[in-house]
Amino acid sequence: MKLGDFTLASGARSTYYVDARRTTMCAEGQVLVGHVVFDLLKSAGLDATHIGGLTMGADPISYAVAHRSWLEGSPVDAFSVRKKAKKHGTGQRIEGGLPDRARCIVVEDSMTTGASALLAVDALREHGASVLAVITLVDRLEGGQDRLETAGLPLHSLFTGPELREAAGTS
Prior knowledge:
Distance between the termini: 12 Å
Structural class: alpha/beta
Shape: globular
Number of strands: 8
Strand order of the largest sheet: 5-4-3-6-7-8
């Protein structure tokens, strides 16, 4: 976590920034994130076939979970959602061979308003997939959960922004 004056993806201003990619993109972080999120899927009874979200924050998380799930003998495949369909090749918005009846979990590294998760949810539903829940590593507790619940989606978070700030001694 960094302290300062930041503009978040939501457009909101904040005095702290959570750069989860420093964890999700390092070797040790990949192992830990894959283990913890896969365990959350199982303990919450989320019978997903696929996990992913908007590229780039969701990518290392979903890949780590897919890897862990294979090692555990209970495969959950990964996918990535682009903000817009690409204009070349096959023009896909969702990458990873997602079948239209997939049971999906949308993941985020850090959540503020839930808008990014809902972009992914909309793309998945248009594709014909169902969305079981949203998982975020860090919920900043700034409205995301309420917005997701309004859309009929439960949110599971591993940490909150205030918890991280307290652990860092900056609350």
